[in-house]
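[agent] plan:
  1. take the single chain provided in the ticket
  2. run structure prediction with default settings
  3. attach structure tokens to the ticket
  4. add a short note for the reviewer (M.T.)
[agent] executing step 1
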Amino acid sequence: MASLQDEFSIGSVLGLKSTVRIQYFNQMWMSVFTWCIFSSAVIYSTAAIIAFTTLRRHKLGRFYSVMILLMGLVIPLSLGLLTSGAIAFVYKHSNFSMVPIHAAMWGVGQTVIHAAVGFTRILATL
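[agent] step 2 finished; step 3 output follows
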């Protein structure tokens, strides 16, 4: 007989299985951080490809895409790690369990906020 609750794994979090309940702090932290780094990789690699194709003939501008990719790694590895831990802390101490769709919403939401802040910084320098 199958249990009503599946075992936790990163594959089940990325697959958004609704039968998984994330109850422990380290699992919540890892789930939100995984979605944050995954969505950041998609958004920042798309931005780097667009920047490279647009600036490929410019002498120094073609290297701007490398900086975009670098920031796409630095932001989730620093700010994303801290904010994922804060979200997991609040969930754990509020005695809430997390489902994978909540981890996805928190992780993608972090990426959107980080990208919006980065975009407004660029606009301020123009």
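[agent] step 4 note for reviewer: The mean pLDDT is 87.
[agent] ticket updated
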